[in-house]
């Protein structure tokens, strides 16, 4: 690492600095963790925010994202439905409030929606906002009109991941482009949405691709930056992907780099936490301040009770945000 390290100042990393961070020798990882941890504590204290995901619309997507069980080229055995049962949606929302968790994240498969579908979503959002829940929707490309409908309904945040670098993107998806994603995010920012945007590590990309994705995210300055570590799903094109490069050390270096590049943003360890960081949660939480409990869109995960125990055992507290 050739960047001069001033403990008090936030680092301003060049692309070369960032690549060097991903190439940190494992025996120097602790020094990197210390740098990231100092920023984590400076901006996020000792707290961890917990999010619960509901897959509100599952499967039958027109897009061909290689990692995704819901894509048009996936043969994964998953539930497919247009709208999740409303009781389940509202039950999950109550769960977020009863446990004083940070946010209810609502995923919808698909890239395009009719105004009628957005109005149906807006109705559900209005109902959940009656309880003051902080809501985020993971949703495809909205028209400006549709985005305003969701804003008026009270939606706080939208998740739209970059997923990988601009130059690697065509390897994982051919039905839309990286640029479309960036433009969509800028439109949402102009309308005043908080943005959650991150990516996936382990799809065959290079370290340079990870750096370029994170530099693009630094430009966007999202409120939250989730990093997923690939969980290969049988029946998807990446079902047999080689994840041997996803050592805990490498995964930690990626998260440290995210923290160093966008220190004030919530850095979330999303999918893969339970697999790639098992037994290393204290180190993980020294860098990230945000995690999911109770699983991911189509994959299971650690229960809420287990997650709370993991956080407190590691010496952290969990954030109480919702009304
Ligand atoms: S990631 Fe989203 S857009 Fe891509 S296939 Fe899955 S549901 Fe569709």
TrEMBL record:
Metabolic or biological pathway: Cofactor biosynthesis; biotin biosynthesis; biotin from 7,8-diaminononanoate: step 2/2
Pfam families: BATS (PF06968), Radical_SAM (PF04055)
Binding residues for [4Fe-4S] cluster: 61, 65, 68
Binding, [2Fe-2S] cluster: 105, 136, 196, 268
Top-level taxon of origin: Bacteria
All residue ranges annotated as the Radical SAM core domain in the record: 44-273
EC identifiers of the protein: 2.8.1.6
A GO molecular function held by the record: biotin synthase activity
Catalytic reaction equation(s): (4R,5S)-dethiobiotin + (sulfur carrier)-SH + 2 reduced [2Fe-2S]-[ferredoxin] + 2 S-adenosyl-L-methionine = (sulfur carrier)-H + biotin + 2 5'-deoxyadenosine + 2 L-methionine + 2 oxidized [2Fe-2S]-[ferredoxin]
Cofactor binding comment, as recorded: Binds 1 [2Fe-2S] cluster. The cluster is coordinated with 3 cysteines and 1 arginine. Binds 1 [4Fe-4S] cluster. The cluster is coordinated with 3 cysteines and an exchangeable S-adenosyl-L-methionine.
UniProtKB keywords: 2Fe-2S, 4Fe-4S, Biotin biosynthesis, Iron, Iron-sulfur, Metal-binding, S-adenosyl-L-methionine, Transferase
Matches recorded under NCBIfam families: bioB
Function field: Catalyzes the conversion of dethiobiotin (DTB) to biotin by the insertion of a sulfur atom into dethiobiotin via a radical-based mechanism.
Subunit structure, interactors included: Homodimer.
Protein name, per record: Biotin synthase
């Amino acid at each position: 690492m050739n960047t001069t390290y001033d403990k008090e100042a936030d680092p301003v990393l060049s692309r070369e600095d960032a690549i060097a961070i991903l190439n940190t020798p494992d025996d120097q990882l602790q020094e990197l963790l210390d740098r990231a941890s100092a920023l984590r504590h400076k901006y996020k204290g000792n707290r961890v925010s917990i999010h619960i995901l509901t897959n509100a619309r599952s499967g039958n997507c027109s897009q061909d994202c290689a990692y995704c069980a819901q894509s048009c080229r996936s043969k994964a055995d998953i539930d497919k439905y247009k709208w999740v049962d409303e009781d389940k949606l509202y039950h999950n929302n109550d769960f977020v409030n009863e446990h004083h968790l940070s946010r209810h994240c609502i995923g919808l498969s698909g890239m395009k929606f009719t105004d009628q579908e957005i109005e149906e979503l807006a109705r559900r959002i209005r109902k959940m906002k009656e309880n003051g829940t902080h809501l985020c929707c993971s949703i495809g490309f909205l028209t400006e009109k549709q985005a305003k409908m969701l804003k008026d309904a009270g939606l706080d945040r939208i998740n739209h991941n970059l997923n990988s670098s601009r130059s690697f993107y065509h390897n994982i998806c051919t039905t839309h482009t990286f640029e479309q994603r960036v433009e969509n995010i800028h439109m949402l920012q102009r309308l005043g949405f908080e943005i959650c945007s991150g990516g996936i590590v382990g799809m065959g990309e290079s370290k340079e691709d990870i750096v370029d994705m994170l530099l693009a995210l630094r430009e966007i300055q999202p409120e939250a930056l989730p990093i997923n570590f690939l969980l290969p799903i049988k029946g998807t094109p990446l079902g047999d992907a080689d994840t041997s490069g996803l050592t805990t050390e490498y995964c930690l270096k990626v998260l440290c780099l995210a923290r160093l590049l966008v220190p004030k943003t919530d850095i979330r360890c999303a999918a893969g936490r339970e697999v790639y960081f098992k037994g290393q949660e204290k180190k993980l939480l020294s860098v990230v301040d945000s995690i999911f409990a109770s699983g991911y869109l189509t994959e299971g995960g650690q229960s809420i009770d287990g997650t709370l125990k993991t956080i407190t055992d590691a010496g952290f507290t969990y954030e109480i945000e919702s009304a």
